[in-house]
Amino acid sequence: MDAVVIDTLPPLDWTNGPGAVAQTTDGTLLLTAATGTDWTNSALGDTHQHGATALGFVPTRDFWLSARVSVPTERTTYDAGALAIWGDADHWAKLCFEYSPQGEAMVVSVVTNDYSDDCNSTIVAADAVYLRVIRSGRGWAFHSSADGVSWDFVRVFRLAYGGEVRVGFLAQAPKGETCTAAFDHIAYGTDVPGNLRNGS
Q: With 151 labelled, which of 25, 63, 67, 120 sits at a CA distance of 20 to 30 A?
């Protein structure tokens, strides 16, 4: 399809070559992951994998980006829709609505400075969850929410990377044939919360 345009966001482009994307008439963004694609820099020494591609923008100032994320297709282990930050193959992060090996949908965050620090967060009983990424100075923060109003703190971190980063949307299907992730209620702003831990 033609270039994806979301009126509230800066221009979007891919991190790792064009991916499968569609936009519905109500503005929902649909990303479909190719078979076996993921981002992972295994801390245990397994093969690194960067086959997935994210659709994002290059931030030029402090900001926040949020979206409600769901996976309308049948789910397999580790498939996910995510908000993602990409610097290079050794410096990236993602906040995922992911399917666990135990068959539960969860908020999962991964921060990679050479190797991936992978952390499970909240179990999600609903069909969708709001995810948010914030940049404040050189720091980053991840939050999740049931309603897009009150935000639960997931983590704060830095990437040991001084170059240009791209921030946006990712679908992954490490174990399955495919995964389609839906992103709606997409919002962007530059009024970064002063307190990252008080639910704002």
A: 25
